[in-house]
Amino acid sequence: MRTQVKNRKRALFELLRKSCLDAYLATNPADWFYLSGFTGEAGALVASSESMTLVTDSRFTAQARAEMGEGRVVQQKGALFSAVGGVLSAKGWRRVGYDPNSLTVAQLGVLRKTAGRGCSMVQAPGVVQALRGRKDASELAQMRKAAILASEVMESGIRMLKPGVRELEIAAEIEYRMRKGGGSAPAFETIVAFGERAALPHARPTSKRLRKNELVVLDLGVILGHYCSDITRTVFAGRAPRRVREWHRAVQEAQEAAISAARAGVACEAVDAAARRVLASYKLDQFFIHSTGHGLGLEVHEEPRIAKGQKRLLEEGNVITIEPGVYVEGVGGIRIEDDVAIQRNGTEILTRGTRNLIEL
Amino acid sequence: MRTQVKNRKRALFELLRKSCLDAYLATNPADWFYLSGFTGEAGALVASSESMTLVTDSRFTAQARAEMGEGRVVQQKGALFSAVGGVLSAKGWRRVGYDPNSLTVAQLGVLRKTAGRGCSMVQAPGVVQALRGRKDASELAQMRKAAILASEVMESGIRMLKPGVRELEIAAEIEYRMRKGGGSAPAFETIVAFGERAALPHARPTSKRLRKNELVVLDLGVILGHYCSDITRTVFAGRAPRRVREWHRAVQEAQEAAISAARAGVACEAVDAAARRVLASYKLDQFFIHSTGHGLGLEVHEEPRIAKGQKRLLEEGNVITIEPGVYVEGVGGIRIEDDVAIQRNGTEILTRGTRNLIEL
Asked: Is-contact A43 A60, C-beta < 8 A?
């Protein structure tokens, strides 16, 4: 960890230098963990090439000192951002970068009042996120483990499906198995959607019972050693009718096409388009109502986005989901999702398990 | 639900009128759920006395139409806040309020570009939070259920404690029981801290095993029907030595004093001071390193804060936690926490179960 953190800091300082920034303020927990190892829920990290200072409250100072290694821990007396402003002012920095996507308007207001007249707060969007997008070997190793655990939990979730069972029961069992497997939490609220409810891409589990001949969408992810996984499979509770088989085949081919398209140097929008093209050939593209995927790492949704209009190029070390779907209101939905690591020469699919339609 | 939502809107419009605001932009999920019933994870709600408009993406539009009842659902084409700006511009409003504590700097930047020159975005901090602080009868009924479920889960968590068990196993069982009891998720990452780790107020569960004669802090909460609960109990794995008994007695008396002090019309800082005064009489106040409590509702930490310097008065309908503690680095910690509803004439303790030191 220590070596990785050093490399990350070096990469950050290089970016700061290029942007003529004296320091960077990280206010997103994933960003500060990435740069310092601090796992607490409240605080802010100020990083410059000379010093790292974490400001946090009394609940987290002992933990911060243990986790940070080098670097200073400042225990705030009053409000967090007044204390951060005090640190900036004491350092006498003139240009401090921050991420406008994670700093609130109120926080910026406090900083402007407390950081001193000489200090300009400069928008520097996505600086740490860009670094986080390129996973190093130790991060990839951890993401592999998280993906394998999610795949195992998916398998046991599928085995629990039988007519009469409730969505909420399946969700409870799934999240229990995540925990038993060492996960610290679900990466997002587990989706267990039966029948018509499978047409809602983000259905919350309810007390609805599974009936014969319904579609089931299971979408789950686990946080293991701080890193997220995300997998979706679709099941039919019975022998699937022709229409459902065709939908599933279309989604499966769309996913294969997108995975094949995903390569270092390829634009994210091209991966999205590959999935959409296949669905269009089945006349199902109007039922694919979300983007093809998203970056995955310390957060479950991070850069890069695999969507229309995303001109950004995939890079070695990116980990993304590929998850096309088809949703028909009143009938149900189908989605297949895997986690894919972009490597120098090709890709590695981190998640496991058949992508064929599973019939109960 | 419909009647409550109407009352809430009426109260909001009264506040808007007083602040000369034409409309209010709610960007916090708890705020928009409170005003509209929409449970999706992405979107923004624009409320005026003439109209309610929810802007969200294609994953959530079907769900939004089903949940919102009256009110318009706009499906964003591009970025969320460009679409919101478009709505504001089309309405021709001149003053639109927003919460600077939940809007990011980047979001405000997009709104300023897209809402049109005639539209001023006006900081209106905590408007919906203030309404949310005064729970109505239906909310209190739901919070009672959430608190009782948390208390039951606590009881079964305590029963599982025995030497050799791991923190993570207990956390897994606890969260499983929340789900089986109908909860949608833990209200926060469950805290299971054995021995020295109990000295960290926000310890994450690890694979550490419980040994004889260690302190155990269990702090858990569940979201049930959208409302949060939060309870803490302290256990000693064996017969507690005199020192631990005295610490526990001090914390228990501090909690009782704070609960007795909590009344409509009393300043939040006075409730905090009541707990601190008792701990000072035991010379333990320097070991109480956090505030006495926080508001509880759709979010696990909301207004009012029960802390030093909080001059705000408690009101009928507030639900707060009272959770003094004592933390001794290298030894362990003690915390006792219950959820308390402020009523017209007195208080109601929503959580259950003995507050005495539990010895295994």
From this structure: yes
> Does residue B203 register a pLDDT over 90?
no
Of chain B, the end-to-end C-alpha distance in Å amounts to 44
In this structure, are B82 and B156 located in the same domain? no
CB contact under 8 A, B58 and A290: yes
Among B105, B131, B157, give the residue marking a domain's end.
B131
Give the β-pairing of B72-75 and B302-306. unpaired
CATH number assigned to the domain comprising residue A34: 3.40.350.10
Number of structural domains (chain B) is 2
Reported pTM: 0.91
Longest dimension (CA), chain A: 71
ipTM here: 0.90
Q: Which domain holds residue B206?
A: 134-359
- Touching check for B200 and chain A: CB below 8 Å? yes
A225 and B CB contact within 8 Å: no
What is the pLDDT, as a whole number, of residue A1? Answer: 65
Closest in B184, B202, B289 to A204, CB measured = B184
Is some CB atom of chain A closer than 8 A to the CB atom of B40? yes
List, in order, residues 6 or more apart from B14 with CB less than 8 Å away.
Answer: none
Q: Name the residue in chain A with its Cα closest to that of B287.
A: A58
Instruction: Say whether pLDDT at B1 is over 80.
Output: no
> At B329, which CATH number?
3.90.230.10
A289 contacts on B by Cβ (under 8 Å): 58-59
Residues near B35 by beta carbon (within 8 Å), at least 6 away in sequence = B5, B8, B9, B12, B26, B45, B47, B52, B128
Distance between first and last Cα of chain A: 44
- Which residue type does A272 have? D
pLDDT in tens, B276-287: 999 999 999 999
Query: With 0-12 CB in 10 A as exposed, 13-18 as middle and 19+ as buried, what is B14?
Result: exposed
* Nearest CA-CA distance, residue A277 and chain B, Å: 19
Domain co-membership, A143 together with A50: no
Mean pLDDT of B36-41: 93
Do A83 and A217 fall into the same domain? no
Say if residue A205 is in the same domain as residue A348: yes
Same domain, B238 and B345: yes
State residue A6's pLDDT score: 87
B200 interaction partners in chain A (CB closer than 8 Å): 59, 62-63
Specify whether A213 is located in the same domain as A346: yes
Taking an 8 Å cut-off on Cβ atoms, the answer to whether B57 and A290 are in contact is yes
Angle between helices B29-36 and B2-18 (to 10 degrees): 110
Q: Which two tokens stand for residue A344?
A: 């120098």
Q: Is A109 in contact with B103 (Cβ distance < 8 A)? A: no
Mutate to test the interface with B, among A104, A177, A190, A222 (most CBs of B within 10 A): A104
Kindly tell me if the per-residue pLDDT of B2 is higher than 80: no
Interface mutation vs chain A, best among B59, B105, B108, B292, most A CBs within 10 Å: B105
Q: Do A182 and B168 touch (CB under 8 A)?
A: yes
Quick check: B139 pLDDT over 90? yes
Interface test with A, best of B38, B179, B219 (most A CBs within 10 A): B179
Chain B nearest-CA distance from A25, in A, is: 14
- Same domain for B113 and B146, yes or no, is no
Positions in chain A short of pLDDT 70:
1
Domain final position from B131, B151, B176: B131
Contact between residue A241 and residue A155 where contact means Cβ atoms under 8 Å apart? no
Cβ of B163 under 8 Å from any chain A Cβ? no
Residues B81 and B165 reside in one and the same domain = no
> Is residue B64's pLDDT more than 80?
yes
Share of chain B above pLDDT 90, in %: 91
